[in-house]
Design brief:
161 residues; alpha+beta; Heat Shock Protein 90; 6-stranded mixed beta sheet; 6 helices; 6 strands; 32% helix; disordered C terminus
């Protein structure tokens, strides 16, 4: 991620060791992160800070419904935040549409965030975007928790399933 972000962008990566685990295809998850990192990089042409964090999230009924009619409960939250140019509401509303891009011709297909959306929905999750012009953007991906570290510790060694 640091290499992809480039030398002008400081990258902080943090994963809460106590967070649960989500079931997602590793190749798709890598694609999801790469797309979010590239978007963040492109939003910071003069440099900035990129933060990638994995934590637990407990979604109540109202929040889960707002995010896409998810069942309330425990989720793994992947947050990708940048200190870039940010977006207005009109742009934010179209972010996940195929072929929507704010990049100059030849610099973006408009498929990166549409791909992210597809992977997240296929994995049973949802995404949230917090942004404002000049205030950067924070993408939060919520994926259903399939087990917690306590579940893993309770399993006998060598037992898978």
């Amino acid at each position: 991620m640091r290499q992809l972000a480039g030398p002008a962008i400081a990258v902080d990566i943090w994963a809460d060791p106590a967070s649960g685990r989500a079931l997602v295809d590793p190749g798709q998850f890598e694609q999801l992160i790469l797309n979010l990192v590239v978007n963040a990089r492109d939003a910071m042409p003069g440099g900035g800070r990129l933060t990638v964090a994995v934590t637990d999230a407990l979604l109540g009924e109202a929040e889960a419904d707002r995010l896409g009619r998810l069942p309330p409960g425990r989720y793994v939250a992947l947050r990708v935040a940048d200190t870039g140019t940010g977006m207005d509401d009109a742009t934010r509303r179209h972010l996940f549409e195929p072929f929507f891009t704010t990049k100059p011709p030849g610099q973006g297909t408009g498929l990166g965030l549409a791909t992210v959306y597809g992977i997240v929905r296929q994995s049973g999750g949802a995404s949230d975007v917090r942004t404002a012009p000049g205030a950067g953007a924070t993408f939060t991906i919520f994926l259903p928790t399939v087990c917690t570290p306590a579940d893993q510790a309770a399993r006998p060694h060598g037992h898978h399933g």
